[in-house]
Design goal:
Length: 378
């Protein structure tokens, strides 16, 4: 039985429908010197912090620490950590043995472009909100100067008046995934080199598309994980649903939320999976190059005398890359998104450890089997 839409959400949807039918905003009207300086300052700050996955991830958490009412900032931080881990996996113990260097670079380009695009879209929104607080009046009319969707202009104005934190967070999930849809997911280059490749499908078969959130237990034992697994990455609906589920995992349980925040505050993001499980991963390679890799984990624990799984820091795995200008266009020019604003109607089971450990074991055996077959052929 569908949940009844609350009056505030009904009103917001009405405003969004009105905005959808309106003409695109003008960005050639004269601005005050103060606003011109603000726009330049925000662009410069965003570009500075958009250097790589580590700088972005830290920026999200720094902003959330200043403004915990903007809950997407913490969600963005935790998901961005996963983006960094996926990037370094390409140079880590397993995928470096399964992918050619060209394929590794193509995967990285795909991940980096999405990570970069989201930050350059969302961070100016954060800084305009911060300036609105400083001025004690909304600055959201300036959002079009950063090519932010009209969808978010309506949502931010509504949040300024009503302070509905969860609605803002859900709207940001919708906006960011919709923003990526044509620029990355439907981009012919990435479809050809990544989304349609055998390896990307193999990733799905191996259940490697995990988003994991670590947190410490009290009394201390090795960090626990909650998370979700994404299948059908190319589906906008599935990605938005996943975002809503991940948001629920972070914020539905106040005790766990605080432990997640405490872990994030105490653990600087490096891109290495050693950040959350140093008992299993190490950012220094200890296995001998060229030596046959023999599976050596069980239930995410190393066998006796086994070397840790190599998981490099981002700075040693990939150089900073220069990104081209974001593609123009507003996704809200097509009628979609509004119906996704409905909150989740049920609690999410975040149990992920079993599937995650199973994925590591499958990867180990995939690497081992490939090496054995290669040796027999030669």
């Amino acid at each position: 039985m569908p949940t009844k839409t609350c009056p505030a959400l009904t009103t917001l949807k009405r405003k969004l429908k009105k905005k959808f039918k309106a003409k695109s905003p003008q960005t050639d009207v004269p601005l005050s010197v103060k606003d011109q300086q603000l726009i330049t300052s925000i662009r410069n700050k965003t570009e500075e912090l958009n250097t790589n996955n580590v700088t972005r991830t830290h920026a999200y958490f720094d902003f959330y620490s200043r403004h915990p009412e903007i809950e997407w900032a913490f969600l963005g931080h935790m998901v961005s950590r996963n983006g960094g881990w996926n990037m370094t996996d390409l140079k880590g113990e397993f995928l470096a043995k399964l992918l050619t260097e060209k394929e590794q670079a193509q995967f990285f380009s795909f991940l980096e472009r999405g990570n970069w695009l989201i930050f350059q879209d969302i961070y100016p929104q954060f800084l305009l909100y911060e300036e609105s607080l400083n001025r004690q009046q909304p600055c959201f009319a300036l959002l079009p100067y950063f090519n932010v969707s009209r969808f978010m202009e309506v949502v931010w104005s509504d949040f300024w008046k009503n302070q509905h934190q969860s609605t803002l967070a859900l709207a940001m999930i919708i906006n960011e995934q919709s923003y990526l849809e044509k620029r990355v997911i439907q981009n012919p280059t990435y479809q050809h080199t990544v989304l349609d490749t055998i390896m990307f499908k193999l990733q799905d078969v191996l259940n490697m598309s995990h988003i994991i959130f670590p947190y410490a237990q009290k009394p201390f034992v090795k960090n626990r994980l909650v998370g979700q697994t994404l299948h059908q990455f190319s589906s906008l609906t599935k990605r938005i649903e996943l975002g809503k589920q991940l948001y629920g995992l972070l914020f539905a349980d106040s005790d766990r939320r605080q432990r997640l925040i405490d872990w994030a505050a105490a653990t600087p993001h490096t891109g290495s999976r050693k950040d959350y499980w140093p008992h299993l991963f190490h950012d220094v390679k200890e296995t001998v190059p060229g030596e046959l890799y023999v599976p050596q984990t069980k239930d995410c624990s190393l066998q006796k005398d086994a070397s840790p799984i190599y998981s490099p820091r981002l700075e040693y795995a990939w150089k900073n890359s220069n990104q081209g200008k974001a593609e123009a266009g507003d996704w809200f020019a097509e009628w979609s998104g509004i119906d996704y604003l409905e909150p989740l109607s049920e609690n999410v089971n975040g149990e992920i450890k079993h599937d995650y450990c199973e994925s590591i074991e499958k990867l180990e055996w995939t690497v081992f089997t490939k090496k054995i077959i290669f040796q027999r052929q030669h």
